Amino acid sequence: MNMTSREALFALSLIFKPGDIKVQELFEVYDDPAELYSVLISGSDSHIPHEMTAKAKAFDLNFAAEVYDYCDKNDINIITRTDDGYPENFRHIDSPPLAFYCLGSPYVLENKHALTIVGARSATPYSIKVAGAFAADIAKEGHPIISGFAKGIDSAAHWGAVNAGGKTVAVLGCGIHYDYPRGNGQLKEAIANNGAVISEYPPLESPDRTYFTIRNRMIAGLAKAVLVVQASEKSGSLNTASHALDQGKDIFVIPPCDVFAEEFRGQTSLLRDGASPAYSPEDILTEL
């Protein structure tokens, strides 16, 4: 079967897990996605691991057609590496998405002066207040707010931007139409109407613990800088900050309101390592 480069990228995005470094290495050998797909299903390149060719041969293209039709009927955009709407910032992250799904306006993803705001799910009322206030003030100035749609800091940041009339982008660790976290449907709709909800996973894909870590490279990649509002020593926010550092981004941290509390120790570690303290939105706006 002859495929266009776009069709091949979409199929490959369904065959292999997002963030797979082995897939990215194959694209360093094969520039044309259609050629790579053909080589995989034919098994003609003995240097490609058998498990990868086996996955490609076993894949049912009818599933790709079903996902495509579902997206078409539900106004979900499928954006591949070959499309004009593919964010330039994604091309500079580890294992750029072969394709991703977008509910809302893909144009907001092209803004190169966005701010990522991340933090704990079980955040203190103080931290939630800070996240909402910083997001609102920065969104008012035309800078989209990027976050991960989780409860706590993420949701506060999204709502802050929405309520201020600004733009915001949610990067999910599950499919766009999967109800997770439960009870956040109103926020998802508000984000789609004021920015975009995106995911590397098909619309009905359920969440998995590993998915959230994998998507963090995208949360960092869409923004010019990252603000960590609340983080413990084992927080996923530190993983996002690590991606941002690898990408050459600025890291801002809300100084801990209690240096003895475990839930703020991640912030202390970042500050010790040279992150910039943010005492007001103006501290960040000057760098965006």
From TrEMBL:
Short name of any one Pfam family annotated for the protein = DNA_processg_A
Query: Which organism is the protein's source?
Result: Ruminococcus albus 8
Q: Per its record, how is this protein called by name? A: DNA protecting protein DprA
Family statement: Belongs to the DprA/Smf family.
Gene symbol here is dprA
Domain of life the protein comes from: Bacteria
GO BP annotations, alphabetical order: DNA-mediated transformation
- InterPro entries assigned to the protein according to its UniProt record, in alphabetical order: DprA, DrpA_SLOG
Question: What lineage is this protein's organism placed in?
Answer: Bacteria, Bacillati, Bacillota, Clostridia, Eubacteriales
What are the residue boundaries of the Smf/DprA SLOG domain, all occurrences included? 78-287
